[in-house]
């Protein structure tokens, strides 16, 4: 039998417990307290299960609830109430690497062809020797001879991989992170392909020769305008590429460095009073046909029918999850592969390239 003193101590302890429960009830809602106690117990169970699994070197998964992780584990309030929840919002952006107008880039002005396989294509083109001439009646007639050259065009593969952490995929609600990756990849690949076309034109086009036009403007030395240089380039384009069968005579699209684009649209006549930009700069060109090159230093005058951009219709997109052991991160990886080639309508490639625009401009009016 318990003595009276023991019973008194038990009653005093029970009284203290009742007081603690009463204080807890005033500080927290009853249901919330029960949930937090249950969550704490659930985490304890998971820890015990993990400990057993590790000791037994087992592989697998331990079930647990997200509520058990994110439920508060202490009944503590700051005096000033400074602890607040944080709502994260992701702002996605990607700087453009190309001049884009109405969703179109410089390359979008050229014809595109989509093919089913990435096989090499062979183009066979004629060349001529001999010309017509005056002859006496009964004399042999001058002969023109045909010869043919062939050029093979293989596809190149343009590829890129984007990686993003698993945490961002989880942290951003819905599918915004995944949508951003795809959209950013598509726009980046388009920018890269646009730059490949610019490089191709710059490498394979005909270099402009200012010598035939130097000193013919009847203006003071050094007074040539950008429009004078474009006009000279158009004349060289016509002389080099005009064709009986192709609708190519003058260039109909112009690519210029972004700072020279500013100089062209602000170009003035005479003493600098009348602007040029309210009229077509040169035949077959308008301001909408003058495109800015963000990273280049050359002027390229070409024709939108001068080549075709061929693409394999089946674009490859690979998606997988990888572990980066070095950084101890789980990553999502998306890879895009595009097969492309540029096929000129004729050779030489219909493009006039001015490699040193300012020096060439000064050479027009020495």
Architecture overview:
- 33% of the residues lie in helices and 23% in strands.
- It is an alpha/beta fold and 366 residues long.
- The chain folds into two domains: 4-70, no CATH class; 106-136 and 144-364, phage-related protein like fold, CATH 3.90.1690.
- Strands 1, 4, 9, 10 and 11 form a five-stranded mixed beta sheet that branches. Strands 5-12-8-6-7 form a five-stranded mixed beta sheet, with helices on both faces. Strands 2-3 form a two-stranded antiparallel ribbon.
- Fraction in beta strands: 15-25%
C-alpha Rg, in Å?
37 Å
What's the number of extended β-strand segments?
A: 12
CATH architecture of the largest domain: Alpha-Beta Complex
Write a concise synopsis of the structure shown.
This protein has 366 residues and is α/β, with parallel strands linked by helices.
Topology:
Elements: H1 4-27, H2 30-55, H3 66-70, E1 111-115, E2 121-129, E3 145-153, E4 156-165, H4 166-171, H5 176-204, E5 206-207, H6 226-241, E6 253-257, H7 258-265, E7 290-293, E8 299-302, E9 307-312, E10 316-324, E11 329-344, E12 351-354, H8 357-364
């Amino acid at each position: 039998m318990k003595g009276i003193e023991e019973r008194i101590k038990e009653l005093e302890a029970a009284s203290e417990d009742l007081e603690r429960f009463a204080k807890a009830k005033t500080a927290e809602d009853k249901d919330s307290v029960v949930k937090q106690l249950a969550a704490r117990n659930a985490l304890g169970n998971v820890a015990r299960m993990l400990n057993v699994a590790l000791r037994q070197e087992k592989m697998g998964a331990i079930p647990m609830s997200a509520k058990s992780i994110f439920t508060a584990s202490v009944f503590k309030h700051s005096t000033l109430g400074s602890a607040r929840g944080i709502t994260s919002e992701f702002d996605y952006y990607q700087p453009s690497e190309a001049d884009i107008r109405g969703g179109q880039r410089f390359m979008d002005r050229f014809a595109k062809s989509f093919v089913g396989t990435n096989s090499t294509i062979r183009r066979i083109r004629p060349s001529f020797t001999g010309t017509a001439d005056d002859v006496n009646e009964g004399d042999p007639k001058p002969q023109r001879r045909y010869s043919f050259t062939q050029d093979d065009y293989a596809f190149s593969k343009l590829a890129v991989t984007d990686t993003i952490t698993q945490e961002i995929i989880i942290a951003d609600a819905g599918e915004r992170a995944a949508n951003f990756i795809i959209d950013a990849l598509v726009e980046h690949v388009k920018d890269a392909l646009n730059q490949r076309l610019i490089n191709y034109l710059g490498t394979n086009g005909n270099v402009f020769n200012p010598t035939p036009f130097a000193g013919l403007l009847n203006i003071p030395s050094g007074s040539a305008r950008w429009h004078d240089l474009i006009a000279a380039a158009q004349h060289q384009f016509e002389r080099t590429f005009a064709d009986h069968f192709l609708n190519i005579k003058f260039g109909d699209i112009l690519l210029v460095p972004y700072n020279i684009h500013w100089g062209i649209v602000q170009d003035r006549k005479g003493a600098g009073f009348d602007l040029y930009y309210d009229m077509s700069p040169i035949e077959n060109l308008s301001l909408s046909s003058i495109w800015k090159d963000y990273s280049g230093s050359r002027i390229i005058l070409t024709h939108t029918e001068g080549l075709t951009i061929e693409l394999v219709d089946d674009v490859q997109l690979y998606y997988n999850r990888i572990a980066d052991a070095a950084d101890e991160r789980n990553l999502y990886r998306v890879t895009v592969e595009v097969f492309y080639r540029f096929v000129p309508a004729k050779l030489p490639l219909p493009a006039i390239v001015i490699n040193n625009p300012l020096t060439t401009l000064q050479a027009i009016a020495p």
